[in-house]
Amino acid sequence: MDKKQHYISGLRAGAPVILGFVPVGIAYAIMAQQAGLGILETILMSITVFAGASQIMAVGMYAQGASLFAIILATFILNLRHLIMSTCVINRIKQSSLAMKLLLAFGVTDESFAIFSMQVDKQATAWFFLGLVTITYAAWVAGAIIGTIVTQFLPAIVTASLGIALYALFLGLLMPGVKRNLRLGILVILTAAINLILSKIIPSSWALIVSALLGAGIGVFFVELEDTQEQEEERHE
Amino acid sequence: MNSEVLLLILGMALVTYIPRALPALLINKLKFSRRMEKFLQLIPYTAMAALIFPGILTVDSEFWWIGACGGVAAIVMAWNKLPLAFTVVGSVVVVMCIYLIL
User: Fold this and answer.
1) How much is the average pLDDT of A151-176?
2) Which of residues 19-78 of B touch A (CB under 8 A)?
3) How many degrees, rounded to 5, is the angle at CA A217 between CA A211 and CA A222?
4) DSSP 8-state secondary structure symbol assigned to residue A116
5) Assembly ipTM
6) Which of A5, A169, A223, B43 has the fewest C-beta atoms under 10 angstroms from its C-beta?
7) Cβ neighbours of residue A14 under 8 Å, at least 6 residues apart?
8) Where are the domains of chain A?
9) DSSP for A188-204?
10) Do B45 and A187 touch (CB under 8 A)?
């Protein structure tokens, strides 16, 4: 297959992600506007950050008056996981130029990583991943643009009820993993309890950061996870 | 544009891109111990747990149970494998109904 065909099959493989990214992108944009971000700022964040959960977390923290440093640190911690995903992706496109790798690295998300991991070696090329990134990125930015337009027309009762959307989104992201893994569920509840206690002692944005790190540190000792990197390597070497 | 928000966006963009780009720059030099890998994989779960609780109880500044109801609705929908967008919209609708009744 040539580059163009790989690119097109990457676009196709990423198409189902549109259904997830556009609505969540819209939800993010509505929350960002409610937090006081302007239209351009809302869209600019989606263009430059391209990481859904952290953007929603950031606008939530911003609305609560957290310091810039706390928000940026929380973003860094939440997005550190991309280090592993990007390592797996880059390992499969070793022959590409550095510029191409640096471009594609920007498009590593939970979803693009998951889809790329499922491809057989012949299919898992840089151009395929570029197609995947193109469609997922376009869906994410389009969601933000639609969200800034939709916000203008929302009735007051809807806007008042939107506070729950952020939490519903996080619960929706958590449940599939927790349902499969009892110990992970216990860790999630334990972390929530730690955060409840810490947020009585220190500002809530710092409680969040400390609880997340502490929870993950404790979880290392008793939660079993399906491996990503090593499974990957076994499968492809 | 607000310069504080611009600084925030710039900072977030930078700290999000660094972990993504590092493997491209340090190819074959990045090796994670199993423990480190597990730690990094667990962070999204623990971060989301901390993001949800106890913040969800402050969705309404007066009644904590409104947020709790929306949360239970979201858990039930997600547990039954409804799509993410449906879960979000569904729990917003539940909270909206509560406001309509109150």
Assistant:
1) 86
2) 19-25, 27, 30, 32, 34-35, 37-56, 59-60, 67, 70-71, 73-75, 77-78
3) 120
4) H
5) 0.89
6) A5
7) A111, A112, A115, A131, A132, A133, A134, A135, A136
8) 3-171, 181-237
9) HHHHHHHHHHHHHHS-H
10) yes
Q: How does DSSP classify residue B82?
A: -
Q: Which residue has the tokens 């996080």?
A: A170
> Which single residue is written with the structure tokens 């693009």?
A112
DSSP A160-179: HHTHHHHHHHHHHHHHHHHH
Which tokens go with B43?
A: 């962070």
Domain boundary assignment for chain B: 52-101
Q: Which pair of structure tokens corresponds to residue A142?
A: 């389009």
Q: For residue B54, say if its preceding peptide bond is cis, omega within 30 degrees of 0.
A: yes
Question: Do B13 and A48 count as a contact with CB atoms less than 8 A apart?
Answer: yes
The nearest alpha carbon in chain B to A217 belongs to B39
Tell me the pLDDT tens digit for each residue of B40-96: 889 889 988 998 999 999 889 899 999 999 999 999 999 999 988 889 889 999 999
What is the pTM (predicted TM-score) of this model?
Answer: 0.82
Q: Residue B92 CA to chain centroid, in angstroms?
A: 16
Residues of chain A with pLDDT > 70, as a percent, come to 95
User: How many other C-beta atoms can be found within 10 angstroms of the C-beta atom of residue B18?
Assistant: 16
Integer Cα distance of A35 and A58 in angstroms: 10
Tokens of A26: 């819209």
- What 3-state DSSP class applies to A224? coil
What's phi and psi for A172, nearest 5 deg?
-65, -35
Q: How far is CA A118 from CA A98, A113, A232, in A?
A: 24, 9, 10
Per the structure block, which two tokens stand in for A69?
A: 């440093």
Q: How far is CA B57 from CA A9, A191, B102, in A?
A: 45, 16, 17
pLDDT at position A235 over 80: no
Which of A58, A26, A137 is CA-nearest to residue B89?
Answer: A26
Decide if A72 contacts B8 (C-beta within 8 A). yes
φ, ψ (nearest 5 deg) of residue B25 = -85, -35
Q: Which of B8, B34, B50 faces A208 most closely, judged by CB atoms?
A: B50
